[in-house]
Design goal:
The protein is an alpha/beta fold. The chain folds into three domains: 139 residues, Rossmann fold; 119 residues, Alpha Horseshoe (Serine Threonine Protein Phosphatase 5, Tetratricopeptide repeat); 140 residues, DNA Cyclobutane Dipyrimidine Photolyase, subunit A, domain 3, CATH 1.10.579. It contains 20 helices and six strands. The protein has a six-stranded mixed sheet with strand order 1-6-5-2-3-4. Strand 5, helix 4 and strand 6 form a beta-alpha-beta unit. Helix 15 crosses helix 20. The chain is globular, with a radius of gyration of 22 Å. The N and C termini lie far apart (52 Å). The structure holds flavin-adenine dinucleotide (FAD) and ligand FO1. Ligand FO1 binds next to helix 2.
Length: 444
């Protein structure tokens, strides 16, 4: 049984005869997926087939071939693992209208989808609910403590959401049952992946990244390597971009190819020292869920209007400050600033598809410093992040950039030019923390 608090219900009408459809989007995996488990529970109780559908958008918030390739390869693996469980998997190419047609044609009786706080995804769900009268449930299969259970409002920072999450963690850190071989219906026709690829209207010049093999089974291998080799030293190494100290899981978490709850279980059970486990679980649970809270309760999560009042005021007061350097979006993109450290971060992102977490802060803050306005800086940072990072267009990205440029989840610091009271960072600070010359040499 799936915890009822993970579920939100729409359309107060009873399920009707017909297959149970799981509209998968954010949680692209077979295992440890509360939305899929819930859909199977319902299909078994109603003695109906279970059908998984994925609405493939021809373009999605600036994503390029780099991210689509990663996603499609993961979905190909998923199609096979669902088939082995006698669950059909369909890719829908006609957007939400295509989904509506599918639901009508299949005479679906119950629609289940996974939760996503992003505006585009919330809007897409509304469009479907307005166009088909079908019993619909939305399951938060991404967060450990469901977003609406963690908090009912926009939180100020990690310090306000942390106690709320910790209070409920035991309640939601439940063991996952396994998906069973489904006894009703049949696996269905194989997906035409070539047709799917050809339907995309994206920029293909940003190419896939070899170092991140896509899919659920690769995600597990990366998790296991992290647990045995890097988690023990995580507390000391995670903030040094010259060391390979982070988990490398963000692309897999972003596409839901691994569950954060599984990662948390395995990290808790590992024999790494407690300080490292605590530091990692703080990022994985508290910081990640804080980002979902930010996007869910603040529809302006990618606009300056979404910054806290004190930050908007101070940025306004410094709007006309003289900038020593002002770069165009192209100069930023091509890593052509005067600062080798910044150019190294940008190059790391262009080439590896994943900038080190510590450098992301420096990278975004310098975009604020060297742009003509906070609005321009925010838009450049989001565009570059979403174009090149494998984990881009994620609540973590919107929250991280809004933290760096707009003081979200932070407090006021000493006042200075351009930044006002927004926390400042410079290369001297970086030099005190790690070997910046080595990082530059690694990436330029
Ligand atoms: P690990 O250190 O191994 O952490 C494990 C997981 O914890 C991460 O995968 C992530 O889910 C979560 N996590 C870690 N740090 C944070 C954080 N600061 N905030 C929220 N969750 C966190 N993260 C993205 O997933 N996508 C983005 O597009 C993104 N853009 C960012 C932009 C800026 C300007 C900043 C400051 C941060 C951004 N982050 C983003 C957050 C963070 O830098 C990455 O999640 C992390 O570096 C991913 O690497 P990892 O999985 O190896 O991290
Ligand atoms: N979700 C979908 O339901 N359909 C898509 O076609 C799709 C494309 C896509 C491309 C890049 C990317 O980074 C994410 C994409 N997602 C898509 C959504 C993703 O699964 C996440 O749900 C959100 O980006 C973050 O919550």
């Amino acid at each position: 049984m799936v915890n009822a608090k993970r579920i939100k219900s729409f359309h107060d009408i009873p399920p009707s005869e017909g297959p149970v459809v799981y509209w998968m989007s954010r949680d692209q995996r077979l295992n440890d997926n509360w939305a899929l488990l819930y859909a199977q529970d319902k299909a078994l109780a109603l003695r109906q087939p279970l059908e998984v559908v994925f609405v493939l958008e021809p373009s999605f918030l600036g994503a390029t071939w780099r991210q689509y390739y990663f996603m499609l390869e993961g979905l190909k693996e998923l199609e096979l693992s669902l088939q082995a469980k006698n669950i059909s998997f369909q890719l829908i190419l006609g957007g939400t209208a295509g989904l509506r047609d599918f639901l009508c044609k299949r005479k679906a009786g119950f629609l289940i989808t996974d939760f996503d706080p992003l505006r585009f995804k919330q809007q897409r769900l509304k469009t479907v609910l307005n166009s088909v009268k079908i019993f619909t449930h939305c399951v938060d299969a991404h967060n450990i403590v469901p977003c609406w259970e963690a908090s009912e409002k926009l939180e100020f920072g990690a310090y306000t959401i942390r106690p709320k999450i910790h209070r409920k963690l035991d309640q939601f850190l439940e063991k996952f049952p396994r998906i069973k071989k489904h006894p009703f219906g049949k696996a269905g026709k194989p997906v035409d992946w070539k047709k799917a690829e050809n339907s995309l209207t994206i920029d293909r010049s940003v190419t896939p990244i070899k170092n991140f093999p896509p899919g659920e089974s690769s995600a597990l291998k990366i998790l296991n390597a992290f647990l045995s080799k890097r988690l023990p030293a995580y507390h000391d190494s995670r903030n040094d971009p010259c060391l390979d100290g982070q988990s490398g899981l963000s692309p897999y978490l972003h596409f839901g190819q691994i569950s954060a709850q599984r990662v948390a279980f395995e990290a808790q059970a590992s024999d790494a020292r407690q300080a490292s486990k605590d530091a990692f679980l703080e990022e994985l649970i508290v910081r990640r869920e804080l980002s979902d809270n930010f996007c869910f309760y603040n529809p302006n999560y990618d606009h300056v209007e979404g910054f806290p009042a004190w930050a908007k005021k101070t940025l306004e007061e410094h709007r006309r400050d003289r900038r020593e350097f002002v770069y165009s979006p192209d100069q930023f993109e091509q890593a052509q600033t005067h600062d080798p450290l910044w150019n190294a971060c940008q190059t790391e992102m262009l080439k590896s598809g994943k900038m080190h977490g510590y450098m992301r802060m420096y990278w975004a803050k310098k975009i604020l410093e060297w742009s003509s306005s906070p609005e321009t800086a925010l838009s450049i940072a989001i565009d570059l992040n979403d174009r090149y990072e494998l984990d881009g267009r994620d609540p973590n990205g919107y929250a991280g950039i809004a933290w760096a440029i707009g003081g979200v989840h932070d407090r006021a610091w000493g006042e200075r030019a351009v930044f006002g009271k927004i926390r400042y960072m410079n290369d001297n600070g970086c030099r005190r923390k790690f070997d910046t010359a080595a990082y530059i040499a690694q990436n330029l």
